[in-house]
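Morning. Coffee machine broken again, so started the prediction first thing and wrote up yesterday's gels while waiting. Chain of 239 residues, entered below exactly as on the submission form.
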Amino acid sequence: MKRRFSFVTGALVLGACIFFLWMFFVAATLERTADLGGISAPPGQDARAVAYQFAAKWRHGMAGNSPIYMPGFFAAAVAIWFWCAAKSLPRMLAEGTLLLGLAAWCATILTPFAVPGIMADFRGQQGFIVSQAASSGTWVAFAQGVYSLLTWSTLIIAARWSIKLRSPKPLLIPLALNLILAFVRPWTVADFTSQWMRQTIDGEPAAVVSFLLVPIISGLLAWVELRSPRKKADALSST
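Came back before lunch.
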């Protein structure tokens, strides 16, 4: 039973990580297209700046391409929370490295198939002309996507350990990683969270639903962790 559960959670994490990285890699193709001069902007507008901003929104599901914001983050959080249960640190590192590498490879293969979609979204919403689209992003964008997933995964695992140990110390590791992320990501957390808050206040459906999902999912995952020791204690007392 444990082996089957481990296989299922591993498969779910792989799928969630592929989805997470796929959104990052697809968005990077728009940035690459702008860098190569494949986008023509109306007079007085900066094609590269607009493309980069749109790509940042798209990778976070905030460009009308997802029913909720941050879909990859939500999917990865839930999957990783159950995957890391009862695993030792060496096992998490071994399995996590394998899953991350496989997810990056799969996301890279799937990326070209989504390029026409993001280009169509960009043309439709911004009105710019895309003469020739890049089929992939740069290695820098690839590394940023992988590092973003690594940072987010570390936060989820640290949060579960923090609840388990009743200590905030495990959260120091993702805190340090996030400080580094602020330097390697062009669009900071403050930028998209402020937009998220503004759209939530304005009553934008996707923003409101996504905002409500944060405490709901966080509460349920915390409840799962807090409930586990009680179940073990009840099982021991009944024997």
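The chain has eight helices and two strands. Going to sketch it on the whiteboard this afternoon.
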